From TrEMBL:
GO terms for molecular function: RNA binding. The lineage of its organism: Bacteria, Pseudomonadati, Pseudomonadota, Gammaproteobacteria, Vibrionales. Residues 1-79 form the RRM domain. It comes from Vibrio ezurae NBRC 102218. It comes from the Bacteria. It holds the Pfam family RRM_1. This is Putative RNA-binding protein.
Length: 79
């Protein structure tokens, strides 16, 4: 199940996102979207979890939670 994570702190790393979601299950892919010109975070990422129940649990637990002073939003990504 592919999740869209929005409103991330611009300083948050791909590793930190992976660790955050790994608390709720196995993360198969984590892609932090970067600006091509600056190389800096655009403030959103895609996280894929193979187990649907784990992904739903992560979404329920992390949506609207405060992470590094930012209230993140987690929802199902549209392919």
């Amino acid at each position: 199940m592919k999740l869209l994570v929005r409103n991330l702190s611009r300083q948050m790393t791909e590793h930190e996102i992976r660790v955050l979601f790994s608390e709720h299950g196995d993360v198969s892919v984590c892609n932090l979207v970067l600006d091509q010109e600056t190389g800096l975070s655009k403030g959103f990422a895609f996280v894929e979890m193979a187990d649907t129940e784990q992904a739903k649990a992560a979404m329920a637990a992390l949506d609207q939670s405060n992470v590094q002073k930012s209230k993140i939003r987690v929802k199902l990504a549209k392919n």
